[in-house]
Amino acid sequence: MQIGPVEVIRGPDTVTDNPFNTLSGSSTLSGYLANSTTVGYIGGSLETLRLFSSAVLQPGTGFDSCGAWLNSAWQDDSLTRAWYHAETACNYPETHKSVAYAESYDGGQTFIKPNYPANQVITAPANYTHPDEDDEGDHHVLQVGNYLYLYFIPSRDWQLRLARSHIDDGGLPGTWHKYYNGSFSEPGLGGESSPLDPTGALTRSWISFNTYLNAYMGFSYVARNGEFAGFGFTMSPDGITDWGALPYLVLQTEREFWGPPDKELVEYPSMVSIYGDSDNIGNVFWLYYMLLNPG
Question: What is the C-alpha to C-alpha distance for residues 134 and 127, in angstroms, rounded to an integer?
Answer without folding.
Answer: 8
